[in-house]
Structure formats: structure tokens, C-alpha cells
Design brief:
Strands 1-2-3-4-5-6-7 form a seven-stranded mixed sheet. It has a five-stranded mixed sheet with strand order 8-9-10-11-12, with no helix packed on it. The protein has helices spanning 41-52, 68-71, 86-109, 114-120, 192-202, 217-236; strands at residues 4-8, 11-15, 22-27, 32-35, 59-62, 82-85, 128-130, 133-138, 141-147, 157-162, 168-173, 207-209. It has 257 residues and is an alpha/beta fold. The chain is globular. The chain has one domain (4-236): Ribonuclease Z/Hydroxyacylglutathione hydrolase-like (Metallo-beta-lactamase, Chain A), CATH 3.60.15. The termini are far apart. α5 (192-202) packs antiparallel against α6.
């Protein structure tokens, strides 16, 4: 296999050096499901090679949300169906070109040749849309796609995969993030903790964040508490002069003392 970690029977996660991004793979009887497709067609081709090292089965794709690093590789997986929330599809149509321009500018400023690959990546929104819940049959395995509420974006999907006994695997996208603070760029801080509470209530096994190491229900609970602290800081005002870390609302570590 190529860089996969099997976290349950037939359920895999691949953690990439680029952006510390996680993609998922669920293998059933004669079918498989790919969760997120990376930043451009070159990275998607690498992911396809990795999928084919595990299974020859035809795939279906799920996008957890509409940020470029999770879905700009969609076109490489066509003509397969791509699932996502209705809001994810709408957001890609309205923000995809702006996301591309911003990322390309950053990459070119850094002299990163991936800029040309992102520039060439088609914006290809999901065509199988979820409003609340959808149940997929992946070769006899039940996979549930759930919209739990506002959080990292307005349209995050959680992917819940059955496992043995009472256990499940949850692919949480960027509703959960390990190794770096959650990103608030287009987030909903007032609603995110409640959404994480719903996710925590579901967690009965491994939880795969959008970036970083695989975690568990305890980590989700801790991150919810951190987000509640951020919300309290926002509501109460800043008790000290900055600079503040934009993600955590804590005084930046570079501040004297």
C-alpha cells in the first residue's frame, strides 16, 4: 500500500505532507468510497495511485467541504458521482475562482511550482447533494453522510462509517483539526461548539480530522471546550492589549512576558 493507515477493517486514512491533509478510503464488496480529493489534479493522480494500491473497485467520492485543498482534485475521479452538502456545491460555484486566485498568488510568491497545477485545476462541484442526511451503500457497508450544523464553514459534512460492534469511524473534515488551531477564515464561531457537541455524541471510535493525526472522542470534547473559550473571549472583549493569535484568541507567544 502507499501511505495508508488502516484504522478499522477496510477503513483507511492517508496523511499527506502537503498541508498535513487527510484523505479517507472505505472498501466494501466491489465498491469503494474516497473522502476528499486534494488540491489539484497532480495530487489527485497521486491519491488515485494510492487507492489502486488497495482496491481495484469503482469509487464514489465525498467532499467534506468546499475548501480547495479538499476538493480541487474532483475532476480526476470523474465520471464517478461526487457527494457533498448542497452548501458545499453552492460555495464552490461562488468562491472557487477566488480561492484559486488567492492560493495561486500565495504559491507564486513562494516560488512553488504547484501554482500552475492549482491554476489548471477545474472547479468541479459535487453533483450528489445532501441537505441533512444521506445513507450510502458502499459494497454492502453503510456509510452515513451528515450535516450537523454551522462550524468550520456553513456546509461541512461528516462521514460516519460502520465498524464492528458499536464502534464507528468518523471523518470529520475540518470541523476537527489536530496539530494546528482550527481555521476561522469563513467559520461560524458562535455555532461551531454546538456542532462539535453533536459530533462528540456520535464518536464511538476513531475520529479523522481534516488535518493531523487521528483522534478520538476525548479530543473532540477538548476542542469543543477550546472553541467555547474562543467564543467567550469574543463576547467578553479582549482583556489585554494584543497582538492576539487569530485562531486561538490567546496572546501571541512573541509578546514579551
Amino acid at each position: 500500500m502507499t501511505g495508508w493507515q488502516e484504522i478499522a477493517d477496510g477503513v483507511f486514512v492517508r496523511r499527506h505532507a502537503e498541508l498535513d491533509l487527510n484523505c479517507g478510503l472505505v472498501v466494501g464488496d466491489g465498491a469503494c468510497l474516497v473522502i476528499d480529493t486534494r488540491s489539484h489534479l497532480g495530487e489527485a493522480a497521486d491519491l488515485i495511485t494510492a487507492v489502486r494500491s488497495v482496491t481495484p473497485h469503482p469509487w464514489t467520492v465525498v467532499n467534506t467541504h468546499a475548501h480547495y485543498d479538499h476538493c480541487f482534485g474532483n475532476a480526476a475521479f470523474r465520471p464517478a458521482p461526487v457527494w457533498g452538502s448542497r452548501g458545499c456545491a453552492a460555495a464552490l460555484l461562488t468562491t472557487g475562482e477566488r480561492q484559486r486566485a488567492d492560493v495561486v498568488a500565495q504559491l507564486r510568491a513562494a516560488g512553488d511550482p504547484a501554482a500552475d497545477l492549482v491554476q489548471a485545476a477545474p472547479v468541479d462541484p459535487p453533483d450528489q447533494l445532501v441537505d441533512d442526511v444521506a445513507v450510502l451503500d458502499v459494497g454492502g457497508r453503510e456509510v452515513v453522510l451528515r450535516y450537523l450544523g454551522l462550524g468550520h464553514t456553513d456546509s461541512d459534512l461528516v462521514v460516519e462509517v460502520e465498524d464492528a460492534g458499536d464502534h464507528t469511524v468518523i471523518f470529520a473534515g475540518d470541523l476537527v483539526e489536530e496539530g494546528a488551531p482550527p481555521s476561522f477564515d469563513d467559520a461560524f464561531p458562535a455555532e461551531w461548539p454546538a456542532t462539535l457537541g453533536r459530533l462528540h455524541a456520535m464518536a464511538r471510535g476513531p475520529v479523522v480530522p481534516g488535518h493531523g493525526d487521528v483522534v478520538d472522542a476525548g479530543f473532540v470534547a477538548d476542542q469543543r471546550e477550546e472553541l467555547l473559550a474562543v467564543l467567550a473571549a469574543l463576547r467578553n472583549g479582549r482583556p489585554e492589549d494584543g497582538p492576539y493569535d487569530a485562531a486561538t484568541m490567546r496572546i501571541a507567544s512573541s509578546r514579551p512576558g
